[in-house]
Amino acid sequence: MSKKVLMKGNEAIAEASIRAGLAGYFGYPITPQNEFTSYMSYHMPAKGRAFVQAESEVAAINMVYGAAATGCRVMTSSSSPGIALMQEAISYMCGAEVPAVIVNIMRGGPGLGNIGPSQGDYNQATRGGGNGDYKMIVYAPSTVQEAVDLTYNAFDVADKYKIPVFILGDGALGQMAEPVLLPEEKPEMKGDQGWGLSGAKGRDPRAVMSLRLAEGELRKHNWDLVSKFEKITEAETKYELTDTDYDVLIAAFGTSARVAKTAIRQLKEQGIKAALFRPITICPFPYAALAEAAKKAKKVLVAEMNTGQMLFDVKVAVEGAVPVEFMGCPGGESFSPEEITAKIKEMQG
Amino acid sequence: MSIVFQKPESLTEKTTIFCPGCSHGIIHRLVGEALDELELRETAVGVAPVGCAVLLYEYFRTDIVEAPHGRAPALATGIKRVRPDLTVFSYQGDGDLASIGMGEIMHAANRGEMITVIFVNNANYGMTGGQMAPTTLPGQRTTTTPTGRDCAAHGSPFRMAEIMGALEPVVYSARVSAATPAKIMKAKRAIKKAFQNQKDKKGFSFVEVLSTCPTNWGMTPLDAVQFVEKDMEAYYPLGVFKDADGGDK
Q1: Which of A114, A348, B72, B239 pairs with A162 at a CA distance of 20 to 30 A?
Q2: Nearest neighbour of B42 by CB, restricted to A197, A201, A210
Q3: With an 8 Å Cβ cutoff, are B87 and A208 in contact?
């Protein structure tokens, strides 16, 4: 029986990835995810596994793409501006259908922004981010333990659907230390999984590519990717609803959901019935579950550390059934539980 | 009766899309022959560029991955690092390798990645219709240098084989030409050496091949061959710029 250990979010996610059988890590320094790359630089070579500090995020994700094309279990981690640079190869990987795990420890933007925790990359992560029609699976953990568990599982999900999977955390999650129970260690996953590039010995050559030139071929491929994502939506959508009896429903993900939970406790003490709807997969977004949950509420409040990005998905889900209000905190900062409680009291008039 | 000449096993039977007089077909064949002779086909993974050679997977009977524009050395790095048992090569044009991919090639070479890089220099962007490349000769006309490349405005052509040769971890860097049968035989030896080095786990090897592009140069295939010999070889001297074995200079 393993015991809980105190670990920083960045290091805990890195360790969970190694325990998931990671064969290669490729990264580039950027705050606030630096402990991730440092952790890998020691622990991957110590196990005889691949670690490369790339010359740029562009190179790092392309190393991931190459290594992922062999069927080996690989990943990268970065933060917002670095993830922006990676979008080209991520689009290629989605087109070519190769699995990988990509961790984004978000910081304030746009541009260089700042290094505070932010949720400003919600749209980028859930709308594809690069060129062309595609979606990825995006997990939004709200505690270090949940980040560990989702990341450990994300590699299996990525392999199952041959798709890049995002872990969307923020600077608070990456920098915060919490007690965690680490999962069991799997052996290094280095096989070609029956489709990867491993040398055409005794079989036909394999090609991993996103170019589709023949008439109708790309159109069919685009629709095939949609069908795949429908299966993912059905099987992999995750969310948390904290209560069954409420007047106000707060929709929040990641770190803001954590702040909302404290606010809900405070509201309860004051006799106000509030519950949290927390998408764990922000893509696929739990539209149906939220639509159902919103029907029981008088009002919905969306609380995000940005200027209103998930707000759009919530409005799509609620379809005007109840009023949807918003409170945002962009700029690499977070609201306090008291600010949420005040907002809800104001909403109740 | 013995077979004295046949298509390399490492190539497929497909007819290529290359224009008449283009060197790509010859260079594909040289790579195929090298893989055959060194018995590397079954462990080979090629990385295709963006450009005329993007369809590498149609013509090579090996595993192939297609890289974003310029990123082939990064993909090759990823593949080789997780699967050191595979024979990894990139095949890139001049726009791909020396312009958009300059960062990736410099750093892969400077890390001494155990890969083989085949660099096809035809002094222009072929696939997109003949724009100025980083290797376009001074004064050479392209669709984006209609009055000829003015080095004061566009910079000077990069001599990649020399640049690669100057990097400490690189074990082999050579420039060869696909202009004449004799030079093609020399090119073959350089390409084979570059794969032999990987087989022997020696390190990063780079072969630049001066090539024709008659269509975009607006020349007949014969004139194009002469342009390579007279003009390109004058600016880009043939030779071995680095050989850790101290071999044939």
Answers
A1: B72
A2: A201
A3: no
Q: Looking at CA atoms only, how far is residue B56 from chain A in angstroms?
A: 9
**B79 → closest Cβ in A56, A70, A88:** A70
- A201 in contact with B, Cβ within 8 Å: yes
What residues in B contact A93, CB-CB < 8 Å?
A: none
Tens of each residue's pLDDT in chain B, 249 residues? 888 889 999 999 999 999 999 999 999 999 999 999 999 999 999 999 999 999 999 999 999 999 999 999 999 999 999 999 999 999 999 999 999 999 999 999 999 999 999 999 999 999 999 999 999 999 999 999 999 999 999 999 999 999 999 999 999 999 999 999 999 999 999 999 999 999 999 999 999 999 999 999 999 999 999 999 999 999 999 999 999 988 654
Q: Which residues of B touch A198 (CB under 8 A)?
A: 45, 63, 83, 86
Please spell the DSSP secondary structure of A250-273, one letter per residue: EE--HHHHHHHHHHHHHHHHTT--
Residue A332, phi-psi category: left (phi > 0), alpha (psi -120 to 50), beta (remainder)? left
A208 and A340 share a domain? no
- Domain end position, chosen among A205, A236, A267: A236
Largest CA distance in chain A: 73
Of A236, A259, A285, the domain-final residue: A236
Written as six digits, the tokens of B174 are: 């050579």
Task: Read off the CATH number of the domain in which A283 is found.
Answer: 3.40.50.920
3-state secondary structure of B193: helix
Judge whether B80 and B109 are in contact, CB under 8 Å.
no
Q: Which domain holds residue A303?
A: 240-348
Name the domain count of chain A: 2
Partners of A239 in beta bridges: A279
Asked if the C-beta of A86 comes within 8 angstroms of chain B's C-beta atoms, the answer is: no
pLDDT tens by residue, A167-221: 999 999 999 999 999 999 999 999 999 999 999 999 999 999 999 999 999 999 9
